[in-house]
C-alpha cells in the first residue's frame, strides 16, 4: 500500500481511469457483437444501423485512447467486410 500522498492520489486516478476505460472498451465490444448478430440475421437495414453504432463506439474508444486507432479501424473493417458481403448477396 502506498504511503506517499502523491502515490495514493496516483492510485486513485489510475483506478478511476481503469473503470472508465473498461466502460468504453466493453461498450464498443457490445456494439460490434450486436452488429455481427444483425449481419447474421440477414436484415440489411438493421445491420447498417448496427454498424454505424459500432463504428461510432469504436471511434469514441480510439479517441479517448482506450484502444489504438488502428485497432478500431481493423475492427470496423472486419464488420464492414461482413456487411458488404451481406449487401452483395441480397442484390
Keywords:
91 residues, mainly alpha, Methane Monooxygenase Hydroxylase, Chain G, domain 1, 87% helix, elongated
Question: How would you characterize this protein structure?
Answer:
This protein is mostly helical and 91 residues long. It has a single domain (20-90), classed as Up-down Bundle (Methane Monooxygenase Hydroxylase, Chain G, domain 1), CATH 1.20.58.110. 87% of the residues lie in helices and 0% in strands. It has 3 helices and no strands. It has helices at 5-41, 44-63, 69-90. The longest helix is centred in the N-terminal third of the chain and has 37 residues, at 5-41. The N and C termini lie far apart (62 Å). The mean pLDDT is 96.
Beta fraction of the residues? under 5%
Count all strands and give the number: 0
Radius of gyration: 18 Å
The overall pLDDT average reads 96
Distance between the termini: 62 Å
CATH topology: Methane Monooxygenase Hydroxylase, Chain G, domain 1
**Domain unit count:** 1
User: Can you tell me the overall shape?
Assistant: elongated
Q: What is the chains' assembly state? A: single chain
Helix content: over 70%
CATH class annotation: Mainly Alpha
Largest sheet: none
Number of separate helices: 3
The CATH architecture: Up-down Bundle
- CATH homologous superfamily name? Ribosomal protein S20
Amino acid at each position: 500500500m502506498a504511503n506517499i500522498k502523491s502515490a495514493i492520489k496516483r492510485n486513485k486516478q489510475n483506478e478511476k481511469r481503469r473503470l472508465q476505460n473498461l466502460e468504453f472498451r466493453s461498450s464498443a465490444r457490445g456494439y460490434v457483437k450486436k452488429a455481427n448478430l444483425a449481419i447474421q440475421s440477414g436484415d440489411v437495414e438493421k445491420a447498417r444501423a448496427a454498424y454505424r453504432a459500432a463504428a461510432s463506439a469504436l471511434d469514441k474508444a480510439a479517441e479517448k485512447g482506450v484502444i489504438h486507432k488502428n485497432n478500431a479501424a481493423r475492427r470496423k473493417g472486419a464488420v464492414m467486410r461482413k456487411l458488404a458481403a451481406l449487401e452483395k448477396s441480397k442484390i
